[in-house]
User: Fold this.
Amino acid sequence: MSCILIAWRVDPRNYLLFACHATNATAQILNDARFVRYWYMGGRDLKIAKGLSDKKQEPDTKLTEAERRITEKVLQSVEKAKSSTSK
Assistant:
């Protein structure tokens, strides 16, 4: 906040610097409010509960499909490496 006052009190006034510092201070205040709401006002619990309820309703098939393809590729690479070293 002191930077905002300095930008306002210098002669000539630096409006651009004032606006930048005011925007930064506003963003920090909003971020602090989000932090307090998440950690101290039950936001984390609501997010966890919502995440658990979403997972119960619909399994993530994309992830399991991706895991299956990656596992296949890794096994193919291992077999290919074994066959090339045994020659």
